[in-house]
């Protein structure tokens, strides 16, 4: 340390061995290992599909493509960069089309995006005429909820998460192929109750296909598949057609007998329980729905109660069991990533109980 300090005083440049280094796009493409890196390249367009990058009429501010040359046109030589919400105003191409051809540096995780070499979860952008500091934790997203508890917290969260992009029921298919993608097989999705990995192409209504399961059963409030609660991907998940049918509109509770094709799942005449690894996920989706839909936007006021057999009433239970499930099965990496993908790519709102599980007991203390 003393030698380093003396050399620095004498004007010799010393670079610590752990200093961050900037890599080229070509290097980033070859290093898709989920490591963190800063990548420098030229903005050459916006990816809209695996092999498609547009250079005009940008559809939104959600992504850009980098290359080592400003004139590059081959997508195989491009790195697809996901732009988190905090950076879109400064680096989204719809808002900043003049960035095309500019050199920028982005720091983030080297991981596939649009099933193509990419950079995700960016924490810093610089160059191109501006610098944006990292947003850090989505704490600023919840600024309006800070210091609140109970009913006041629930009301504040409702206001925050109601600011969202709404999908159509057809768009849900495409969203689920991204939000629930199997991290070990990009051609598959993971079914929520069974945990089975199934080909994305097997979507549909046939035996052993997967379809769109409403975790908050759509008959509980009779909202159907209308845009709103019926298409909110925070509670819509892939599931085997037969398992979806077995769950039906049952409430959630422990007990019952085994469910075919759903290892670890049980059901009886008025309730259903998924595999243990999905129970916390289910609980947090239910709590999200009870906060998001409060009856002020033309849809029923959805509430959690401590009953089963709720039928078509806008209630779902069993509250005490759901709270226990949430505590026993905290958010894992898959669930956290899903929340982030919904926020950054689709609805642009978050499930607060994934980010802050402690808020469950604050809103529902008993």
Q: How would you characterize this protein structure?
A:
The chain has 366 residues and is α+β, with helices and mostly antiparallel strands. It folds into two domains: 113 residues, Bacterial OB-fold (OB fold (Dihydrolipoamide Acetyltransferase, E2P)); 225 residues, no CATH class. 27% of the residues lie in helices and 24% in strands. Strands 2-4-5-7-6 form a five-stranded mixed beta barrel. Strands 14-17-16-15 form a four-stranded mixed sheet, covered by helices on one side. Strands 9-10-11 form a three-stranded antiparallel sheet.
Helix and strand arrangement:
Blueprint: H1 2-9, E1 22-23, H2 25-30, E2 36-49, E3 52-54, E4 63-67, E5 79-82, H3 88-91, E6 103-110, E7 118-127, E8 130-132, H4 150-161, H5 169-179, E9 181-182, E10 185-190, E11 197-199, E12 210-214, E13 236-240, H6 241-247, E14 251-252, E15 257-259, E16 262-267, E17 271-273, H7 276-292, E18 303-304, E19 315-316, H8 319-328, H9 333-346, H10 352-355, H11 359-363
Helix pairs in contact: 7-8
